Amino acid sequence: MAKSIMQTDKCVCYLCREPANYNDPLDKHHIFGGALRKKSEHYGLTVYLHHSKCHIFEPEAVHNNAEICRKLQADAQRAAMKKYGWTVEDFRAEFGKNYL
Ligand SMILES: [Zn+2]
Ligand SMILES: [Zn+2]
Fold first, then answer.
1. Is 4 within a domain?
2. DSSP conformation class of 29
3. C-alpha 28 – ligand 1 centre gap (Å)
């Protein structure tokens, strides 16, 4: 399994920067889902998020909030371009879209 290239500390939430807690553990979120989930995993475009507050359920959770979803996609594109030396075109060839 590839390591996240977006975050080194797996014990802290990428969005709120707080550690996991008993009521809300951290989940691994794939920045690009569906057909691109495997590529997200392969290139390390994943982050750890509080399951309820930041990942799935609450208003600021990435699966509930298009703006935050889009921000993470842009962060992931920047991280991938830097890490792999990709241009925007290279990124688009892999992920189908430019998020910047
Ligand atoms: Zn959080
Ligand atoms: Zn997710």
1. no
2. E
3. 12
Q: Which residues surround ligand 2, an ion (CB under 5 A)?
A: 29
* Residue 17 domain flag: no
CA–CA separation, 64 and 69 (whole Å): 8
Q: In the structure encoding, which two tokens stand for residue 49, read together? A: 């998020």
Look at residue 1 in the predicted model and tell me its pLDDT: 55
Q: How many domains does the chain have?
A: 1
Does residue 27 contact residue 48 with C-beta atoms inside 8 Å? yes
Determine the distance separating the centroid of ligand 2 and the alpha carbon of 29, expressed in angstroms. 4
**Residue numbers in the chain where pLDDT is lower than 70:** 1
The reported pTM is 0.94
**Ligand positioned closest to the Cα atom of 34:** 2
